[in-house]
Amino acid sequence: MRFNKPELNSLASNPATRFDKEGLLIITDRQEGFLWRSSEVRVERWCKLRGNLLFYLKDKDPKSAVAGLLVLENCRARIQNEERDSEGYVFDLDFKDSPSERFITRSSAERLAWVQCIEHASSEKLNALIRQLKEQIVSQSRQPSSGASSSMGNHIDLGMPLEQQMQEQLQLHGQPAEELSVPVPTEVVAPFEELDLSELPICETALSCDTLPLDTLGRPPNPQVVCSLLPTAGEDCVWREHARTELQERTRTPQFLCTMRFQRSAGLSASTRLRFSVFDVRERMTLTAVPLGHAEVALGVIQDTSRLRLPLTSPRGECGFITLASWSPDAAVEPGQSGNGPPRSSTQLFDGSAGAGGATTSSRRAHRRTQSLPPKLGVRLFVPQQCGLQRVCSNPRLRTYRLHSSLGADISVQETLLESRLCCQLPQQLLSIWIQREKELLQEISGMGELSGEWRWRQMNLLEEHLRLLKDYSQAKQNIQQLARDGVSFKRSSAKADESLEFLPVNLHVQRMWAQNDTLQRRGLLDVVTVGAFTRHDPKGRKCGGLIKLLQESKSWKLEQSNACKVQAANDAVQATKQLRKEIVELMSQLLQLASRRSSMDMMPLCNQMVARTRTLLNLWEPSIVEEAVAFIERHRIIEEPENVLMEPMSPFRKITQQLTALELKSPELEDFATPVVAPPDLWPRGQPPLMRSNSWHPSNSSPSSSLDIRAIDSLQHVVKCYNDHLRSLEQGRQPGRQADDEEQEEATYQSLPVAWQTQSEVSAGTQIPPSDNPADLSVLQLIDLDEIGRQAQRQRHHQPPAGFLDTKLMSSSPSANYYRPTEEPEPLDLTQLNIEASVMCLVSKLKFFCGRCDSPAIRLRHPKAPIKREGFAVAPQQAPDVIAASAASGKQAPNLALDLKPQSVDSDGITTTGSVAVKKGNKFTDGLDLSMTTDWAAELRPSMRKLRHAMDRLLKTARLMHSVQRLQQDMRCNRLQASIMYRRDVCFSQALTALVSSLMLRLWGSELDMGYLVMLRDLGPLAYFEGLLTLYGNEADMWSDMCIAIEDLSAVSFQLVRAQGEVAQTPTPRITGSRQALEVQLPVPEHSLPGNGNSISFKITPVFFNIGINEKASFAETLGQTKEQHRSNWDNYLRLSQYFGRYRKLGLGSVDTGESLQSLLGFMEQQLRANVSKNVKILHLAEDACRLMDGLRFTSCKSAKDRTGMAVTLEQCRVLVREFQLPAKHVPYALSTMRSEGTRMDNVLKNIGKRKYAFNRTQVSFLPAMYRPPVGSYGKAQT
């Protein structure tokens, strides 16, 4: 009786209480004796049974004090002996988790009566009776049971918990849904999922009550109103809940903030009957309530009357009044027009007086405010303009409020919770890019060929690591695709530790608040993206220190390894080479189009850009590093003798690398890596396979499957691991003298590969394969030279589209253009650079000739160098002068690499040729050309462009080879550490980028764009403020570390606005391109939003991250001194925010008042950062205000974005209402409590854990700052 002791005493001793059973019972009491000895004593007491509470008094006097009670739940009454005992008739109460209790009566009939009453006293029996009555109602109405028809029943009259809450409790207690007569599924929330935010409601109603009755002790009630509706005849026969208000404490005249909306899409009409039931909530934790009374009215009456006061009726008579203040759209709006969206203005207004008479309007306006009647409500209906909000968001939850400002006006507030449609789409695009990267690295490693000694084991280690990453990325993408097909658009917080969905952000939602103060003529939006911490959750709860600690360890490893810096530099150079090659090819494609139109005026600017990029490309590489890599390959590669190619079987390494062609060299979901029109090459060719047209290749039954099979990757990874373990054992000398067994083991290892992957060339080794016209009969294909495609294009008309060698999609996916085959010899870097220089010189000379500058000197791409001695390279006299090839001749004069050409020089390229050639004046690249006779400019430019493209391909191949050698020479432990860090970083970055792009799309589509915002995007880029409520204690310290790195990585992403036209405008989806180091996101925007000059807008964001822990663990962290890193991070982000404000003010963005306010805010923030204050949440509030003034993007995060995030978001909403809409400060606690208990954040809790309870206990609540504490009854034991 320690819990609610006064209430229980009052219930047991009140003479007006009607008990189910009273009488004398002999109870066995246990009394403590001397030296901890206990004894049992029989005591006759007066007992009272009320519901499931059995009170026993101190003695047998009915008016004596209460001694205690028993709660009759999870118990069973048992009669062991029907006969009379020595003391009387005995029966026992057996409890599930407690000792049994023994009772004795004086007669057998009295015992039987007590046992029957006790059996029917539990709530389980009561629920069974309710279900039986429901079944009888359904059978009488001759209609099938449905969630809509029986979701209310008669619970309003009986004062029991509502059906939805009962279902949630039964689910959490583990009761199967089959035992319920009402199915639990999604029909309860289906109306919310189909809600159209642009639909005009029939009417909106605010409620208030007066003269409510007192309870038996003379205390005011805790009122709450539930609105139920009775559909039209022929549909349902029972009441079902529609909406409810918040709970007010100890008042007879409540004025509720929550309003109720009635919409036609919910099946409502003017004839729909409504019942407003008023409850007195006696206990907030369990929501135990008793009914006070109810009033019934038709919806049409409410719609036609702006103010309606109805008496409440109950079995005890009248018990007060309820007042309905309603406002509706113009009566001329037809039902068929209800779904039309609001006009182009930001707010649509409807005067509530349109449907009421003149007398009603005058009386309403003349009415004065009193304490017994509700305050004056606005007479206009405000509907916010949603623009294209539901094109980027889905599944809205809506709550509306009416608040009162300090000036006597009304504040209309609409709170909306939505899911982002991009939650599953963006991680798939990122995974496609990372899958493509792993395939590239696999091709690089296999392109080195088979190495000898220790290097073969290192090579297999790298292959195993990349196959493991490829399998993990592919499996994650497949899991997300399955989730998207199921229609799920968010990841529940209860599944945050699920490794199969770790690339998805946890509980990603959009919280939008729209507010309107009609008196101030002010309206505004507040959009906050709520998302769980960007981290990789460990299912076992193990700590790793987070990304900051892991990167510091990796940095220390790199300092110990002298080769680590070279690996990073080589990787950066490879990415730069790929990008420059793509840009140069795109420029050449544009030049071909201009040449086909003979547009000489526009060709020279493109020519200058191409020369600048080529110059950068030639200066990327240090020749000494490339020569070291080539020497390493020549020294350690195993060369296969030509005469033994067809006789000896393939080694295990060659068999494994041969199967890599089955893992696809492309990612079909990305346009950047479109399906190639060339066949995958045979890495280890044997014999002369037939030629085949590249554009007619299709996968056949005998060729590897074109679809990426995760099981195939897993099988190949297992094979590589087995072979790798075998090589490691050989290196460590664990199997001496067993070479023959080793060879057998190598062969057995390969036999575990899938049979379908075996190449038919092994079966037909030594046999010449005849040419075949049927692609399905070919197992080994050879790439056709792209020069042939170019020659065919030359023979066609001049307005033919550019040839295949300028197709950047084909270039990015073609293996022959990106990697060396294992049997190919790498080309010397000097020779590749000379080919690029000569091709560019020839191309530029021809362009200048076409532009009328035939006397211009040749260009210089590199700085002059001293002549070096090189043997074995010369150019034959009959060869074209714009390319250099190797020949078997030796002992010739070394070429001059300076390329410092003069106008009168004949050998302008500085290459020594065999024989004596007469010296001629002029530019040799344009000799013989007659501008008047040249009709096809594109045909003259295409050969030089093709040779330049092929020379750049060879440069990229050499770069990839050098990168592989550098990685091979690195410590294997460093490679494994970097792989694990990269995977964790990718997981965190995927979550962060998804949240960021969702916020950007919300800003671009969910509200109107003005020119000032577009100017800010173009000149500065938006500010993205991430607010963290994590604690630097335990696992959350790792989450904070991961978030810091993930948010920092967002600053490197480029964004570009593109016009959305046609179908894209209906379902706008961003597109991610680029590589891990250089990502670009293309954001579709409404076509009318971008300026008409055709210039695209590109920008980057400026992210800032402020974190303050607020729970009980934050107190522990501050006591232990573990918040130093948090303070340092907050200070660094403050400096970044100040620098952003400096650029913001320098560009003249914002008004003068805004600049002064920001200046004072940042000054006050600096003071708060310097102050040593525990849980200084003022830092977060100042950052929120600064972000809102600069029109930035807002994010709020905690561990799961559910409990602490809900407290923070609702507090920010109230702060905005106070600062911008004149909400009185004294009304903030009540408004804050209402939003937390009945607002959309509680809906978010229900969506995540299936229960309307924040996951706080009483101790945790006491540690929270006062303004972050949830209201009583809204928290309790729940799954976090």
UniProtKB/TrEMBL annotation:
Sequence ranges assigned to domain PH in this UniProt record: 28-123
Protein name (database record): phosphatidylinositol-3,4-bisphosphate 4-phosphatase
Domain C2: 183-312
Pathway this chain belongs to: Signal transduction; phosphatidylinositol signaling pathway
Keywords: Coiled coil, Hydrolase, Lipid metabolism
Gene: CG1846
Keyword Transmembrane helix belongs to the record: no
Coiled coil spans: 570-597
